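Narrative of accomplishments. A recurring question from our advisory board has been how the design workflow behaves on a single, concrete structure rather than in aggregate. To address it, we present the structure tokens for one chain from the evaluation set, followed by the sequence designed for it. No filtering or post-editing was applied between the two.
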């Protein structure tokens, strides 16, 4: 989940930058609706050129560098235009007003400068039909599309309902935050004013016939100029006339390939299917097979494995046999098995991970849960079957995830002018998410349906004027803030090392999982999450009955007041789970006293680190720890805390478990383990050489330490010759390990 920033950790330059952002915001508010100040074209262009040079020299700005500052401002939201260009009244740049959203208006401009591809924005200079230049800043845009993909110079750009605001230097600029507010008008378009009929700079307008455009597209595809190829094929389709059905099919089939390469899987599938005739002769069978293969690949990427199976089947029926088709079909069958049964080869998936390949090729398994209303919490996720502790509840691939080592990632401070909140960690994800949503607008609907904490937008997904899906960027932002999960950095080692999946890397990586996002929070929850690459796994920590709500802990903040503050500020709720109810009924003084004692216990543990049984702690130290543990336990009202964890006492109790083990005090060690599980609110806890039982209670919790304490109990049994009890305890430790780690891999248990 998005982390609030610790201002004391920021370099001074950041604080300055934030102050600038805040000052700018106030300046803009004070200059609302004033006439735009004219600008000198020469100065504007010169400054733009030096901006381009500067951006080229700083391709990788990082937070660690105190001299380079990335700040993202989440501005005062304005809605994306849901009108088509034809419905809007044309205005000129001179008519713009400062800090104003020009509703009902459209600006027609052409780009005259290069692009400044900065990490947080994309900038250029545009000129309107009167020759007036102005700065254009795109808050979001798929930089991978390149200059001509983003703002081609071969077209006229319509900026729908333009927003005119101020840049860092308090100079006016056109700001486009919603990519759908930009429409490309071909120069042949009758709406383009004569003065903007530029000399064709792009190649598209030089070529006329559909066949020539197909050849140009193929040449561009070979050179990996995918956007150019796409534009050529699209233009070719517009130019193709009656009698040219074969060429049109080629154009669709080839555009499908360009779309696949641009990760526009929905469009890739539509195009591939549009290319299909009834295969009559051998040659058309071959090209049809190619189209089925492409449609199958697109369906695979869209996780529609049933559809993918039927498409690859059709491909193979046409050609008899094909190596690539067979490989894909075999992968599809594995995915269908994962999807239906929730059975995954997690070791294999983990072993394929690396920083270069941080995403897993796996299916979602979602059938054990469904979205339903959760009284007082909006919607929630509910079990559709009885689920046992340790069972996989769900496994889902991210809709979008960004890892901090990836090229598109950058670290930036984000300042939200609406709330004054300063956060870190999701600026880059926001940009990536918007790009991905535009690339696949149908899948976008699942993301746009997520909770946004009260942001009310237009039903943007339902409208697509000018054939462009409309997505409200600010809505996406708020959805991301309320739903993103922080995840670990993927590596091969994750599934090979002890608690490898649990090792978090500071939560800078984050992503959106659309189904898992429906899980509501409870501090004492019934589902624990881990990650393998971009796969999120939830396992049951206790029995979950069919129809019961699935809950997870959004944050593990120990202090009650701090925790509630975070819930209120970040997610807009107060937690009323069993733990919060019990802790909330303590007096403020009780809580303060407990926190003081807990800190004392933590300091004691830090000063008295345990090593092994060759270096056991002294009796005096153990007595000190026992005193602290007792003092902490009595801070809990026995009745009120029945059945809920007594978190503050856990750390020192775990220290005692190891201390007794290291001192070869078997009886005390086992008693301390029993006590540890009682503190976790486990029920029926019996651990002796004859009986080993523990049962997760309604309010119990589980953690890494619980696994370790059971391992110490197991060791003690082994060392005292009680092998059966040792094995039982080791099995229990392994069961808990599976819950906490997500997979059993990496577990280091008893020696044989
Ligand atoms: C990730 S979403 C969970 C799904 C959400 N309930 C929905 O309807 O889409 C997070 C939001 O759910 C609500 N929520 C989650 N846990 C809650 C709880 N324990 N009590 C009340 N509201 C909760 C809050 O509105 C929070 O901002």
């Amino acid at each position: 989940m998005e982390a609030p920033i610790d201002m004391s950790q920021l370099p001074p330059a950041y604080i300055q930058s934030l102050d600038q952002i805040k000052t700018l915001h106030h300046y803009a508010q004070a200059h609302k609706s004033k006439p735009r100040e004219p600008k000198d074209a020469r100065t504007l262009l010169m400054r733009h050129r030096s901006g381009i040079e500067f951006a080229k020299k700083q391709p990788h700005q990082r937070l660690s560098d105190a001299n380079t500052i990335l700040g993202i401002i989440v501005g005062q939201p304005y809605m994306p235009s849901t009108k088509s260009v034809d419905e809007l009244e044309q205005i000129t740049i001179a008519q713009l007003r400062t800090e104003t959203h020009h509703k009902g208006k459209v600006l027609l401009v052409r780009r005259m400068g290069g692009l400044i591809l900065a990490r947080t924005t994309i900038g250029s200079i545009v000129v309107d039909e009167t020759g007036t230049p102005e700065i254009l800043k795109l808050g979001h845009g798929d930089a991978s599309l390149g200059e001509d993909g983003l703002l081609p110079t071969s077209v006229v750009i319509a900026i729908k309902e333009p927003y005119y605001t101020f840049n860092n230097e308090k100079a006016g600029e056109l700001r486009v935050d919603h990519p759908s507010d930009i429409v490309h008008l071909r120069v042949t378009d009758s709406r383009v004013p004569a003065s903007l009929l530029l000399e064709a700079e792009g190649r598209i307008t030089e070529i006329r016939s559909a066949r020539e455009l197909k050849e140009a597209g193929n040449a561009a595809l070979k050179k990996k100029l995918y956007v150019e190829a796409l534009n050529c094929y699209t233009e070719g389709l517009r130019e193709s006339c009656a009698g040219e059905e074969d060429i049109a099919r080629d154009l669709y089939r080839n555009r499908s390939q360009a779309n696949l390469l641009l990760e526009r899987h929905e469009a890739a599938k539509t195009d591939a299917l549009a290319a299909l005739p009834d295969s009559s002769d051998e040659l058309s069978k071959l090209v049809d097979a190619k189209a089925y293969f492409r449609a199958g690949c697109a369906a695979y990427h869209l996780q529609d494995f049933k559809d993918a199976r039927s498409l690859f089947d059709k491909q193979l029926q046409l050609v008899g046999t094909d190596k690539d088709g067979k490989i894909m079909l075999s992968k599809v069958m594995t995915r269908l098995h994962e999807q239906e049964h929730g059975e995954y080869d997690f070791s294999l998936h983990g072993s394929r991970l690396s920083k270069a390949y941080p995403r897993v090729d796996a299916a979602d398994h979602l059938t054990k849960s469904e979205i339903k209303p959760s009284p007082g919490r909006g919607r929630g996720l509910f079990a559709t079957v009885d689920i046992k502790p340790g069972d996989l509840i769900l496994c889902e691939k991210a809709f979008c995830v960004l890892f901090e080592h990836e090229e598109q990632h950058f670290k930036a401070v984000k300042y939200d002018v609406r709330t004054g909140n300063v956060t870190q960690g999701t600026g880059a994800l926001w940009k990536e998410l918007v790009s991905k949503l535009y690339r696949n607008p149908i899948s976008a609907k699942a993301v746009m349906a997520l909770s946004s904490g009260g942001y009310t937008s237009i039903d943007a997904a339902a409208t697509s004027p000018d054939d462009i899906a409309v997505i409200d960027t600010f809505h996406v932002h708020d959805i991301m803030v309320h739903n993103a999960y922080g995840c670990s950095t993927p590596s091969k080692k994750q599934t090979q090392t002890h608690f490898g999946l649990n090792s978090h890397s500071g939560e800078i990586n984050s992503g959106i999982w659309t189904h898992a996002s429906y899980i509501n929070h409870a501090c004492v929850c019934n589902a624990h999450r881990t990650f393998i690459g971009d796969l999120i796994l939830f396992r049951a920590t206790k029995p979950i009955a069919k129809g019961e709500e699935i809950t997870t802990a959004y944050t593990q903040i120990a202090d009650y007041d701090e925790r509630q503050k975070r819930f209120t500020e970040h997610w807009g709720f107060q937690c009323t789970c069993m733990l919060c109810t019990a802790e909330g009924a303590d007096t403020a003084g009780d809580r303060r006293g407990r926190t003081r004692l807990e800190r004392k216990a933590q300091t004691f543990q830090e000063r008295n680190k345990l090593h092994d049984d060759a270096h056991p702690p002294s009796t005096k130290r153990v007595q000190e720890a026992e005193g602290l543990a007792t003092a902490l336990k009595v801070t809990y009202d026995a009745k009120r805390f029945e059945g809920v964890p007594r978190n503050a006492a856990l750390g020192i109790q775990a220290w005692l478990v190891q201390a007794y083990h290291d001192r070869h005090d078997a009886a005390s060690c086992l008693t301390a383990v029993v006590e540890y599980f009682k503190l976790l609110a486990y029920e029926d806890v019996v651990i002796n050489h004859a009986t080993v039982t523990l049962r997760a209670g309604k309010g119990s919790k589980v953690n890494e330490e619980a696994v370790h304490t059971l391992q110490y109990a197991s060791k003690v049994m082994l060392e005292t010759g009680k092998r059966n009890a040792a094995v039982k305890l080791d099995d229990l430790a392994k069961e808990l390990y599976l819950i906490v780690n997500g997979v059993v891999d990496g577990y280091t248990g008893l020696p044989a």
